[in-house]
Specification:
With about 300 residues, this protein is of the alpha/beta class. The chain has 2 domains: about 50-85 and about 190-285, no CATH class; about 95-175, no CATH class. It is built from 9 helices and 10 strands. The strands form 4 sheets. The chain has a 4-stranded parallel β-sheet. A two-stranded antiparallel ribbon has the order 1-2. A two-stranded antiparallel ribbon has the order 5-6. Helix 2 (about 60-70) packs across helix 6 (about 190-205).
């Protein structure tokens, strides 16, 4: 088998998120239709969707699910570990559609600061306001090279000033719901699956596998809960995949219940290989060679 690990740095981050986006560029098409086929040609890969799989963790987890959704025939399965937010009703722990402020929850009598990071015991390590103040100090116009700014660059439209349109004001935290609507239409993976399941479902049945710690450091499990609710509701066809949670596991649990998180996250390649081989055996087209390459 060929294992391809792609480096796709850009002016906003060390990773493009492997999709086409208004601010970062057409990385999705470049990777899927140019780079990967060229590698397969050079190294004698089969170059067929039934024999391709994608996996990753954190940013790579989001990418794995995203390219499986956006290019459903290119892969026969996605293994998404601790993915970045896959439902923006739980953009970490914030609902960008319903909440008005990214930094605070509005209580009955006071505002409560939103946490950005925690440990598995629930201790807040940094708030969203503090994390974004740090980013703003590193670079204005979303140019910090950090996490919230690359999400904004990938998911959002181009702003009037030519830079990524802010999803929220970096100083006040006020959310721009018009920008949120763009996010919903283009990059909210749960919303896209829900909207397009009649067309995507037949292509994705059996291909979606998601793993996350129940105490993910960045609250990424919240979006997985919402995605799981939708996937479990699918009927025609049922999604026929897997969603699993690591009890007390922080970022970035990859689905291995036998090892502590600090160790399991180190063996992604061997972790998913048996599951990939099992799916190949079950779904390979008639007459496919399933023996000569097995050692």
């Amino acid at each position: 088998m060929l294992i391809i690990k792609i480096q796709h740095a850009n002016p906003f981050y060390d990773d493009s998120y492997a999709v086409n986006s208004a601010n970062v560029g057409p990385y999705g098409d470049a990777i899927e239709t140019e780079l990967i086929p060229a590698i397969e040609k050079q190294f004698h890969g089969l170059g067929q969707g039934w024999a391709r799989f994608v996996y990753g963790g954190s940013t790579g987890g989001w990418e794995a699910l995203a390219v499986q959704v956006f290019y459903p025939e290119h892969y026969n399965g996605a293994f998404a570990a601790c993915p970045d937010p896959i439902d923006f009703h739980a953009y970490t722990d914030i609902d960008i559609y319903k909440d008005n402020n990214f930094y605070y929850l509005e209580g009955a009598h006071k505002r409560v600061a939103q946490p950005s990071m925690r440990d598995y015991l629930g201790h807040t390590l940094i708030t969203t306001e503090e994390a974004n103040s740090y980013e703003l100090a590193l670079g204005d116009h979303g140019r910090s090279g950090e996490q919230y700014d690359i999400w904004q660059a990938v998911y959002g439209p181009v702003g009037a000033d030519g830079y990524p349109a802010p999803i929220y004001d970096k100083v006040t935290g006020e959310i721009d719901h018009k920008v949120a609507d763009y996010w919903h239409e283009h990059y909210d993976l749960e919303a896209i699956l829900e909207r397009d399941w009649p067309q995507l479902g037949p292509e994705l049945a059996g291909k979606i596998h998601i793993y996350v710690g129940s105490d993910d450091t960045y609250f990424l499990n919240d979006a997985v809960y919402l995605m799981e609710d939708f996937l479990n509701s699918t009927k025609n066809p049922p999604y026929d995949g897997e969603v699993a949670y690591g009890p007390r596991a922080e970022h970035c649990w990859n689905g291995d219940p036998t090892l502590p998180n600090a160790y399991s996250r180190l063996h992604y390649n061997t972790m998913y290989l048996p599951r990939i081989l099992d799916r190949i055996q079950k779904t390979a087209p008639a007459g496919a060679d399933l023996t000569s390459w097995r050692y």
